[in-house]
Specification:
By secondary structure, the protein is an alpha+beta fold. It contains twelve helices and 24 strands.
């Protein structure tokens, strides 16, 4: 690297004397594993056998590479330097592509925004547009069920092993055996498994806690603010239940609008399948049972698509992958693939449903409704008591990084929705099959007796048999309702309109199904329970009860806006492409 630090890589060479392109993976998870498991990428040998020189590199401070590990911080400069080094390897044609999932997707974007001249294409999977919003935090709230286990068992452990820090290794491994217990620990700023008093262990984790707003600490790595620097075609891969879905979609739309060259703007592709973060639909993936039942039609086409992408942009093969933006998406419920030229889909019809009736639950007589008519008369607010010491449990959703950390994917919500702190609102049975594909927005008018609290919204399909399966969810921390940079407390008892961005989905409701929206103030352990005190995040163990009121009157018309795809706009396609032999 430019500062003299040595990073080490495994290099796989094809058996040819012709110059070939390079495909590069920069990983913090061990170059010898190359993200082959669980059921993700083909081996580096397989890619090399298709006449690519494959480079799998340990990033700074992990594995066999020298230097000190710091999450995100070195991957801008190191990414640039590694691309340019790879382009000069003997036997290359000077063109470099990159690939990899999750943090390895981040290493691609962080390299690309530095504009290395020999980078020709990237294929980031399951990765975000920003490392504050939609990675470490969401809607201003800490993504506890992802961040803590990942920080401890993956990157914290890898860095300790690299330092040969025996004491830290032992403490981290002990914490891994009691992950559920440690997610209950408060305050977050004193999290024992990562030794807050020892700056050698995980200073980056405690930086994340201290920087709980979107500030300059996070902006220096933000991809969404640097699309104009990226001048290469991008094939984005995402999953409907992935922890970084929203950011992956934003990377596609951001590059179409703001990419650094006309070629880059025109050559963007997004593929969204029925996957969580690690389960890409192959036989050895550990996924939610409802995803496991989809069969081969839901399998990820990543390897074939990747080779087609590289064949064109690194070798010049005219194979039809280039020339215009494209979105390929899997419609759950219909269990088929479709394609579109843009996101949101150009034929989308936005439909507003208003909250009505009494959302109180805990019995079979619930009457919370979603109706097409705006409220015209007075309506009593729906109330529930939120206790941070007894939060509503996470049952599926978009999280990371495996089913053992936080429940991920689609699950029946019927049991959790018997709680008195979860309100539900349903449409009438749908008269025809109806596709919903795109982002969902809840405009929630609500008040709280606390100076700060959370509101969670979830979109579900309520079937005639009573099952209520989650499609996606979103959260807003009340103090962050207007700004992720400058949070302000709310006035207890005063109604506010909160915009909750439920992450996108694609599902075909069957005739007789209902659309359900569930509202609560917690989703644990996916998100840290808001203590309702208004104190700075991560600094206190104190909690307070809060009475929450949801409004549905003409002055405060709570609603949900859903993207309806009209029948007849089929867009059907087939996956995967013809496999490479």
């Amino acid at each position: 690297m430019r500062d003299g630090t040595i990073l080490r890589a495994d290099v796989y060479r094809p058996q040819t004397s012709e110059p070939v392109p390079v495909i590069l993976m920069r990983t913090q998870y061990g170059k010898s594993f190359a993200q082959v498991s669980s059921s993700r990428y083909q081996t580096p040998d397989w890619f090399a056998s298709h006449c690519y020189l494959v480079v799998i590199q340990d990033i700074r401070g992990v594995g066999k590479s020298d230097g000190t590990f710091t999450e995100f911080d070195n991957d801008l400069r190191d990414g640039y330097d590694s691309v340019e080094w790879a382009a000069q390897l003997p036997g290359t044609n000077g063109k470099v592509g990159m690939y990899g999932s999750s943090y390895i997707g981040a290493t691609q974007w962080l390299a690309a925004v530095e504009t290395p001249p020999h980078l020709a294409a990237i294929v980031p999977a399951n990765t975000s547009s920003d490392y504050y919003d939609g990675w470490t935090y969401e809607g201003g709230q800490f993504r506890l069920g992802f961040v803590e286990p990942w920080a401890v068992s993956t990157i914290g452990l890898a860095a300790a092993e690299h330092r040969r820090d025996t004491a830290a290794i032992e403490q981290i491994r002990a914490a891994m055996d009691n992950a559920t217990q440690w997610m209950n620990f408060r305050p977050y700023k004193d999290f024992p498994p990562l030794q807050p008093g020892n700056p050698a262990v995980a200073p980056w984790y405690f930086d994340w806690i201290r920087n709980s707003t979107y500030n300059d600490y996070w902006k220096k790595w933000s991809i969404r603010e640097r699309y104009q620097n990226v001048k290469v075609p991008v094939l984005n891969m995402e999953g409907w239940y992935d922890s970084f879905l929203a950011g992956g979609i934003e990377n596609f739309t951001g590059m179409v609008d703001k990419g650094g060259t006309p070629e880059a703007r025109q050559n963007q592709r997004l593929v969204i399948g029925p996957w969580d973060h690690l389960g890409w639909g192959r036989p050895t993936s550990a996924v939610a049972p409802l995803l496991d039942q989809l069969g081969p039609v839901g399998n990820s086409p990543i390897n074939e698509l990747m080779l087609a992408w590289y064949d064109h942009f690194l070798k010049g093969v005219d194979n039809g992958v280039a020339g215009k933006p494209r979105v390929d998406y899997y419609v759950m419920g219909a269990n088929r693939w479709k394609s579109a030229p843009s996101w949101p889909l150009p034929q989308t019809q936005w439909k507003t449903y208003y909250f009505s009736g009494d959302g109180e639950n805990g019995s079979s007589g619930r009457t919370g409704k979603l109706v097409e008519q705006a409220p015209t008369g007075p309506a009593e607010g729906d109330r529930y008591l939120y206790d941070p010491t007894d939060p509503a449990p996470s049952v599926g959703g978009h999280s990371c990084c495996g089913v053992g950390n936080t429940p991920q994917g689609p699950f029946d919500q019927a049991a959790v929705e018997q709680r008195t702190d979860v309100l539900t609102y349903d449409t009438a049975p749908l008269g025809t099959d109806t596709e919903i594909t795109g982002p969902i927005t809840v405009k929630l008018w609500a008040s709280s007796t606390a100076p700060d609290t959370d509101f969670v919204a979830r979109l579900e399909v309520l079937a005639p048999d009573g099952s209520a399966v989650n499609l996606n969810n979103g959260i807003i921390r009340a103090a962050f309702r207007d700004s992720l940079t400058n949070p302000t407390p709310i006035v207890p008892g005063q109604p506010y309109e909160f915009t909750i961005k439920i992450w996108p989905t694609s599902y075909q409701f069957k005739a007789g199904d209902r659309i359900r929206v569930a509202i609560s103030s917690s989703d644990y352990p996916q998100y840290a329970p808001n203590p309702n005190t208004g104190e700075p995040f991560g600094e206190s163990t104190r909690t307070e009860l809060a009475t929450q009121t949801i409004y549905k009157d003409p002055q405060h018309p709570s609603s949900v806006i859903v993207p309806i795809i009209p029948a007849g706009n089929d867009g059907a396609t087939t996956f995967p492409l013809t496999p490479h032999k």
